[in-house]
Every structure is written in structure tokens, then in C-alpha cells.
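Reviewers asked in the last cycle whether our approach scales beyond single polypeptides. To address this, we selected a multi-component target totalling 399 residues and predicted its structure end to end. The input consisted of the following lines:
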Amino acid sequence: MNEKRGSLHLLTGVIIGVLIGLLVSLVLLPVQYIDTEPRTLKESDRLAYREVVARAFLVEADTPRALARLALLQDDNPSGALVEQAQTLLMSGGKDLEARALALLAAAVNQPSMVITPLAVVLPSPVLEVTSTTTAPALQSTITPTEILATRTPAATVTPRPTFTPQPTLGAPYELLEQSNVCDPEMKLSLIQVYVSDAAGKPVPGVKIEISQPNGGVETFFTGLYPEISPGYADYTMTQGMTYNLRVGEAGRLVLNLSIPVCEDDDGKEYPGSIRLDYQQPK
Amino acid sequence: MRKSRLVGFIIAIVVGIAAGLIYGWVINPAGVKNTSLESMRNDYKADYVLMVAECYASDGDLAGAVERLEAISTSDAVSVVQQGLITAQQLGYSNLELQYMAELEKALTMSGVGNQ
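The resulting structure, written as C-alpha cells, was:
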């Protein structure tokens, strides 16, 4: 009897110990990894990484490089992830430029040959004399000197930055080519469907569209969020009884009083339709 | 007798804890997932710094750059960019790319925003 009790208390101790050990090693203090790859990032950091990749894409306009960076995340559906992030950003009133960058990158995923105009950047003149006012001595002591570091801009002559112009696709304002009602009884929503193309008729992603209502409130969205329809496509869901004003691009003309059109089916029964707007840059 | 039982019980717990820790940390550690930007390898960090520098070159938003840089290190933003520059040089980044990064480093140093 005493022998059995002795074994049991040891077994109980081991079980308690193992449970504590597992709790600590798997939950409380799990292994901390270093030198990881982007594919293992947690969701919040994946969002941050995607956003930076998209923003850099606007500057570099290097589609293969942006896609290679994006591939590091190993998303199941890279385009879908970008579109979802852009929409979430817009709905939360986030930064327009980031949303546009994400939309453009989503379009690039579906159309790798896509070319965008890079954003203007400001860099100092490449040749300047080094003076004693050059800052960051720590950098100079730890980095092998190169032409770049030896010619950094002295503090006293820093070049002022011009006003930022977030326009990856500069050009003439888009003009409304055609406005038509779309009557399809199968459509469950009444949409304002916008198709934007350049002067050559090629769809343009990342074009800003503003929807405003007479009683106030402005919403912004971008083409390119539905690349499966067209890289130059965007839509907005209308509400019954509301009227909308719409502007495409930064300097486009305002289209006034858009509202849900009334359509009739074969039996003469009325149902709400949609509106299609085709925009193009003048040649 | 009682004392020896207690000692045995404690030793059993210690042995169990050791076994649990070895299993969780060595034999079957938690999978590599849910990592942070901070744990990324240095070459990925350098590329991230370059992207942040390019964003800064286009929008001039230094506060935004600092916010992004803080995501990849607990060090101050200037040190993060300096480390990125070192790695970038070792990896043979182009002069233009190094220039973007050096510009950001200079702006952070001059403004004092990125120093702790």
C-alpha cells in the first residue's frame, strides 16, 4: 500500500510539472524568433508591410519589384488582400494616398505589365562640398565612406521641399464620354458604375472619384478596386431617394443630380436600375 | 518518511517542468507565425527602410516615416536608418537607393524627431 502511494505522488508531481512546463514554453514564454521572413508576420504587421510596399510602388513605378516584395507575404490572394485593405482604409476615413496606392498595386497584380507614372520625389543635388556642419557623426564612423555619404547636404544649405503633389497619373482632366442607365433585373444593388480610361482607351486604375450629396458628406473611392471587372472600374451603391454629385479625378467636371433610375421589366413592372458613366482623357 | 515523500514530489515537479520546457522550446516549439516587423531579417529590414525613405522623399512626412520605422525596431529612428544603410551598402544597393536612405537619415538627425 505504501509503495503504491509513493509512486502516485511522484507521478502526480511529474504531471503537474509537465503541465506547468508546457504552459510556460508554449503560451507564456514561447520561442522568440529572430531573422524571420515577411510571410510569418502577424496580420497587423502584414497590413503595415503591404501599405509601405504600395507607397514605394508609387515612387519607384517598378511593378516587378513591387510584386516581388508583395510575394514575400505569400498571401493566398494578393490582389484580394490589397483590395480589402484599400476598402477598409477608405471606410475608416484613412489616408487617400495609401488607399490609392493599394488599389494601384492590386491592379498591377492582375496586370503585371501595367506601367504607372512615378510620383515626383525630392533629392538633394548629388555634388556638394562637405563642411563641418555635416550631421550624424555616428553614421560616418560606422559606415564605410562612399560617394553618397561624403557628399551629404550640409545643414546650412538644405534644399526646401516643394509642395507634395500626389498624382501618379498626371494628365488632362477626364471627360464624361457617355452617361447611360443600366437596366438589369438581376442586379440586386443600384450602382453608379464608373469606367475610366486614358486617351488611348486603356483602363486607368487609381483614379480618385468623389461622391458628394447635396445635404453634405463627401466620400472618396478609387478605380482599380475591382480588377476582375476592369482596372479602370469603380462603383458606388446608391440609396433610394438620394441624389449624388460625382467628380472623377482632381480637376474633373462635376456631374450633378445622379439618382436611381427607374426601369421597367417585360411585364411593365418598375424596378430600380443603375447608372453607367464612361470617362476618358481627351486625345 | 514524510519529508522524503515531499522531496520526491518536488523533484518530480521539477523534472516535469524541465520535460515540458524542453518539449515546448526544443522538440516542438510554437510555429513561426505571428511574428513582428521587428523580428525580420536585416536584409528585409533594409528594404523596408528603403521603402520608408522613398515614401518620405515623395511626401516629406517625417512623422509618418518615424512611425513606420518604429515598427521595425525599438531603437530610435536614426539608428534604424543607419543600420539599414549599413546593410544596404553590404548588399550593394544602388547609389540612388542609398541616397534616399541617407536623405531620410539626415532629415531625422537635423529635426531631432528620430532621436530618443
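The first helix of chain B runs from residue 2 to 27. We regard this as preliminary and will revisit it once experimental data from Aim 1 are available.
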